[in-house]
Amino acid sequence: MTAIIGYFHRDFQTSFPRKLCRRRERWIESPPVDSPSPLIHRLVISAAIRKEGLKRPLYGLQEANVSIESLIWSLFENEKICAWTEETPSSLTPIDASGVEYFEVSRPGVPLRTWFSRWELECARPTDINRAIQLGSDVFVINPKERPEGETVFPAMPIETPYEGPEIVFKDPIFPEKLREGLFFLTGHREGGDSMERYLPAAIDDILEQAEAVVLFHADRDSDCLAIYAKTELLDSIEKLKQFAEAEDFPISEFEVPPMVARWDRVWRAHQHNTDDDEDSSEDSEGDTATAISQESKVGVDSDTVQVSDDESVFVESNSSDTVQVSDDESVFVESDSSDEASTEAPEI
Q1: Contacts from 279-284 at CB under 8 Å and sequence distance 24+?
Q2: pLDDT tens readout for residues 237-269
Q3: Entry pTM
Q4: How many angstroms separate the CA atoms of 89 and 165, rounded?
């Protein structure tokens, strides 16, 4: 069972957002704008894994057994990390949450008078990140601006007893009201249920006016991937990602298109090639057998093989190095001899 982490880093415009994972997610349609939005930067991180008995790889961080909370923590350990959750059942609202707002949802498939909550949670450790994710958080704000002292709170649809149980007094909001408005703009237009629309891209610019970066959960083919949006290049985050991959023993590859829309065929082949080279190197270095070859065993040996024992030989490949390059532009590769995908249809970008 082999897992590989893939990442993509490039500039991004919220007024012209690229397509997301086909048949899994799309952007909420933004209102029209008179001029293009400013350039920001995006780092997308996903993973893929081959499991025995499956005909194709599985894609996404959870499926590849990559701990999302550990990954976020490794990227922003020394920063202030705050979770934002738009829609949690009111009875599951964390006791230590801040800026809690209750609201009633009326949509098809949801029982009448069903109450939910939106809230913030400062994450001081990886377990806090995991707890927020389990309760529905899919937005994490990095280094938000301080809330002005005495700023008025404007709760949406407050009620006295939104759930059964003891009265709980929640903390005041962590985020300034402008940031809370931006976050509601980002996630508050979801339709719920099986809708593929998660985020409104125009809101990202408003959020980055109030925070250093924002982490969103985008859909990959089988589970989620992470996308970090910031005004500046995320080169430091890439270095930390490489350190995380090395510490967790994951191979890592850079993509020229977002991993959730790219084909991984060449990455898998290059990884298999490197694995085979490592195995050959390991066999060559075992004991003194490979170095103490008798003159008799050398006679008549083919030029491409080295006789190691009576029945074993190590094959030496001439092309021992191979560079993974997904593309030079934002094109998608369709390999006719690929067995990784059930379909050879090229995904949209």
Answers
A1: 280/314, 280/315, 280/316, 280/317, 283/308, 283/314, 284/314
A2: 999 999 999 999 999 999 999 999 998 888 888
A3: 0.76
A4: 14
